[in-house]
Each structure stands twice: as C-alpha cells, then as structure tokens.
C-alpha cells in the first residue's frame, strides 16, 4: 500500500524528495519551461526600457546644452531653434547608426562563437538561436533614434519659440531640469536603485554639462570677439 500511495500523491507533493523520481523529473521540466522563459522576457523588457530612458536622457542633455551654448554667443530665437533642431537630427542619426553597428557586431560575435562549438549539421540551428537572443539591428536603431529625439524635443519645444532671451534660456533650463530628474528617477526604478539619489546625480550632471557649454562658448566669444549673427 505504501508504494501505491507514494506514486499517487507524488504529483500533489513534488517538493518531497522521498516520492517517485518521475514526479520530480516532471516538476523540474515544468520549472525549466515556465520559470526561465518568464524571467528572460522580464529582463529583456527591462533592458529595453532602461536603454530608452538613457537615450532620452542623452538627447535632452545634448540639445539643451547646445541651445544654451548657442544662446551664449547669439541672442536670437531663430539661432537657438535651428541649433536645437540640428542637434536633434544629428544626434538621432548618430544614435541609430551606432546602435545598428553595435547590435550587428554583437550578433556576429555570438554567431561565430556558436558555430565554433557545434558540428556542421547544427550550425543552422545555432544561427537561429543567436537571432532570437539579440534584438533586430533595425529595431534597436529605430528605438535609439526615437528615444534620443523624444528627450531632445523637450528643451527644443519649450524654449525654441520664445522671443525674449532670458525667458528662452530659463524655459530650456527649467524643462531640462524636470526631464533630467524624471529620467534619473525612471532609470533608478528600472535598475532597483534609489530614485532620489539617481535623480539628483542625473540632474547635477545635466546642469554641469549646460554650464560648461555656456561658459566655454562665452569665453570663446569674448576671447575672439566673435558673435554669431542671425538673419
């Protein structure tokens, strides 16, 4: 009677090591199919979100610093608007190309590694696994470009269309500060870190970048008696 009870109740008590081996093997197989798959999907989603937050932060800091720097040598609204728009387009293209090349290089390395450890009959299957483990280069490029453009649009839209110089610079600084704090807190939340500390670090870093850009261009303008004239 004892062996029959053990075999009947093995599926109900899979954690007991004294029950049948078939039940334990079934539990292990179910965990192998259910647990890691969900975990991999969550990690991949978190990596994409974190990359998007970092890309948006780069776009915000780059374009805000560029507009502030242009404001140091030119008081016209059109010059700041054009410089910000140029920074948005150039930065988004640079991010897209860099991500495209990076993902393709990573894919080539993974394919070469998988082919070196398999026989010729298994090489085709190894290539398919590499493609599943990596994002599409085109998709990664588009995501990076969109993230950069989204962050860059914040200072561009907030201060690019204001006429007074002081209001324009203040709008760029204020919107950039709010965006930096938000992006820093979002990145910390995705990474499991402190939102306050991360937001403060990102905010101070953005302020430093804008201040350095303004100071360098202002000193350049004063040293060489140069001022960019707007039409």
From TrEMBL:
It catalyses: Fe(2+)(in) = Fe(2+)(out). The chain crosses the membrane at residues 48-68, 80-105, 138-157, 169-190, 202-224. Keywords: Ion transport, Iron, Iron transport, Membrane, Transmembrane, Transmembrane helix, Transport, Vacuole. GO terms for cellular component: vacuolar membrane. Residues 1-21 are annotated as: Disordered. GO terms for biological process: intracellular manganese ion homeostasis. It comes from the Eukaryota. Its main location: membrane. Signal peptide: none annotated. It holds the Pfam family VIT1. It is found in: Vacuole membrane. One of its GO terms (molecular function) is iron ion sequestering activity. It is a multi-pass membrane protein. Vacuolar Fe(2+) uptake transporter. Belongs to the CCC1 family. This is Vacuolar iron transporter.
């Amino acid at each position: 009677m004892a062996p029959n009870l053990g075999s009947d109740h093995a599926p109900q008590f899979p954690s007991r090591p004294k029950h049948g081996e078939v039940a334990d093997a079934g539990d292990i197989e179910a965990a192998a199919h259910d647990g890691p798959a969900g975990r991999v999907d969550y990690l991949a989603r978190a990596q994409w979100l974190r990359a998007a937050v970092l890309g948006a932060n780069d776009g915000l800091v780059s374009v805000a610093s560029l507009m502030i720097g242009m404001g140091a040598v030119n008081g016209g609204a059109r010059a700041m608007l054009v410089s910000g728009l140029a920074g948005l387009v150039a930065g988004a293209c640079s991010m897209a190309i860099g991500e495209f090349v990076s993902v393709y290089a990573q894919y080539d390395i993974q394919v070469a590694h998988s082919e070196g450890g398999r026989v010729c009959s298994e090489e085709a299957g190894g290539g398919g696994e590499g493609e599943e483990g990596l994002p599409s280069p085109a998709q990664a490029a588009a995501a990076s470009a969109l993230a950069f453009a989204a962050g860059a649009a914040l200072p561009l839209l907030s201060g690019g269309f204001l006429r007074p110089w002081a209001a324009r610079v203040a709008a760029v600084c204020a919107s950039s500060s709010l965006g930096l704090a938000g992006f820093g807190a979002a990145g910390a939340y995705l990474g499991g870190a402190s939102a306050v500390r991360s937001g403060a670090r990102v905010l101070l870093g953005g302020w430093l970048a804008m201040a350095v850009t303004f100071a360098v261009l202002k000193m350049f303008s004063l040293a060489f008696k140069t001022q960019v004239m707007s039409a």
